[in-house]
Amino acid sequence: DAGVIQSPRHEVTEMGQEVTLRCKPISGHDYLFWYRQTMMRGLELLIYFNNNVPIDDSGMPEDRFSAKMPNASFSTLKIQPSEPRDSAVYFCASSLTTVSTDTQYFGPGTRLTVL
Amino acid sequence: AQTVTQSQPEMSVQEAETVTLSCTYDTSESDYYLFWYKQPPSRQMILVIRQEAYKQQNATENRFSVNFQKAAKSFSLKISDSQLGDAAMYFCAYRSPHNNAGNMLTFGGGTRLMVKP
């Protein structure tokens, strides 16, 4: 399996622009998570989906952030408009819930820089 | 709410030596899961080891092992025969078993491990 795939790996944009981050979870996994990592706040869970349905988006910082999962193999995290304080590494992770295992597998992350 | 604390912001170890990274957590649940993740300079989060709270036996993965002390709510990671490639940030994480918490992980603040040649 290729693991969790994220694109782009690096994104540099200007303040006010729309940014879309993409994630392909591991095939067959039923949970998908979006995290943000910064030096100041560490790792924060933004939102997670179960079977393509958003379950908890309480970590989404504000209305400028939105996430979708149109099908089991694709999710997007969109920031519109972007601001310099959104600069961070954004991780996508997926997991399969069974009786015996639920480990989250992380993608390589997208490093976002907003100028 | 659960909290995870890693009290060592940085640790250093000589190559081939053994190092132990500390993690404590706070929970009122009796059953849960604990994890150690490694984050090298590439920034990718890599699962190192996993422990189920109902298991008394400490988990082991090659050179990595844990010391799980349930009563003390302690979950330390021991790295034996340290290698240069072990240099990374290490995160301890907690997961509740309850369905209404989904598979949410609560992370500690991380420990930066440096390995000296």
Question: Concise description?
Answer:
Chain A is an all-beta fold and 115 residues long. Chain A contains no helices and eleven strands.
Could you walk me through the main structural features you see in this protein, from its secondary elements to its overall organization?
- By secondary structure, chain A is mostly beta strands.
- Chain A is 0% helix and 54% strand.
- In chain A, the strands form two sheets. In chain A, strands 2, 4, 5, 6, 9, 10 and 11 form a seven-stranded mixed beta sheet that branches. In chain A, strands 1-3-8-7 form a four-stranded antiparallel beta sheet, with no helix packed on it.
- In chain A, a hairpin with a 2-residue loop joins β7 (65-71) and β8 (74-79).
- Helix content of chain B is 0%, strand content 50%.
- The model of chain B has no long low-confidence stretch (mean pLDDT 91).
- Chain A binds chain B through residues 31, 33, 37, 42-43, 45, 48, 50, 55-56, 89, 91, 93, 95, 97, 102-109, 111, and chain B through 33, 35, 37, 42-47, 50, 91, 95, 102-105, 107, 109-110.
Number of helices of chain A: 0
Shape of chain A: globular
H/E element sequence of chain A: EEEEEEEEEEE
Q: What's the story with the biggest beta sheet of chain B?
A: 6 strands, mixed
For this structure, the quaternary state is heterodimer
Share of helical residues of chain A: under 10%
